[in-house]
Amino acid sequence: MRLVTTLFLLISSPSLGAEPPAPIIDVHLHTKPPGEFLPFSPKPSECALPERLPAVDPSQPKVLPAYMKTKEPYCERVLPPAESEEELIARTVERLERYNIFAVSTGSAETLATWAERAPGRIIPAGGPEDPTAPDEQALRQRVDGGALEVFAEISTQYMGIAPDDPVLERFWAIAEALDRPVGIHLGPSAAGIPSLGFPTYRARISNPLALEEVLMRHPHLRVYAMHAGWPMESEMIHMLYSYPQLYVDIAVLNWHLPRAEFHRYLERLVGAGFSDRILFGSDQMIWPDAIDVAIESIESAPFLSDAQKRDIFYNNAARFLRLSQEEIARHHGN
Ligand SMILES: [Zn+2]
Asked: How many angstroms separate the alpha carbon of residue 36 from the centre of ligand 1?
């Protein structure tokens, strides 16, 4: 009888007694509902691991949604979109649970509350001032004190043509330092051809990691991670990591939107220069949840990484950078 009961339990509860997989921290997850992300239906698929990038004709500027609607498929690995908010949440949360992911998640207060309900304990709320050039310190302080805002991200001033060391951002940096909140700032690629796709103020040169230098010198208590690791400016990024030990990078989007050989080459350069303990895993999932699978595979399949380096990139570096408590780390490990 006991054997039968045990067998029954084993069959009916496959997770019973199973260890959760080793945890992952995704420092770059978006929760914006698909209807706001792209205001038309059906939503387009996205491409992972392309062999070449699609052509954009700058003499025929288009806005990004119109371009996304018409662009030709250009790769083998196609990521199906989530059409609705419900589908986005369901498919993303399924992955958070399957891979045991805890995610620094950007979105509106309402959206983040919904996600936190659907994935209890897995959502680390992120956001920032609506306009980083005119931050409302009081409002930010209230959200931080209330636990509704743990990370300032994604600071996307690159799209506005504003470099990190532009004086118009100085107040924001001072507030982030005073509130002791980490900042994730977009420094790197967007969609290929983005200046001709409705973002005429986006500039490649503003992804230069050297533009963080004066900010870090002026604010020695500031914790910053360069989202997208300044790709492809590896020499500048390495010099900054070397000079400023408080600086981290995330490898979101690089790990699924670039050709994999290029991602591995870039990652190997950063790791080979000695910075495997300053690289954070991120997905930059937008409305294509399968991107998370590809992003994880891109780390797992890197032949130059040791198992210990993979654990650092997937979890340990972010736990240190975010200053998680021993209790939180134990909970993430299922203890
Ligand atoms: Zn992003």
From this structure: 15
Q: How far is the CA of 249 from the centre of ligand 1 (A)?
A: 13
CA of 209 to the centre of ligand 1 (A): 17
| Ligand 1 center–CA 29 separation, angstroms | 7
Give the three-state DSSP class for 272: helix
Residue 324: what pLDDT? 98
CA distance 82 to 290: 10
Cα of 6 vs centre of ligand 1, distance in Å, is 46
- How is the chain split into domains, by residue range? 22-332
Quick one: the chain helix, strand, coil %, rounded to 5? Answer: 45, 15, 40
Contacts made by residues 144-149, CB under 8 angstroms, sequence distance 24+: 144/179, 144/181, 148/109, 148/112, 149/125, 149/181
- Tell me the whole-structure pTM to 2 decimals: 0.92
Q: What is the pLDDT of residues 245-288, one digit of tens each?
A: 999 999 999 999 999 999 999 999 999 999 999 999 999 999 99
Indicate the class that CATH gives domain 22-332: alpha beta
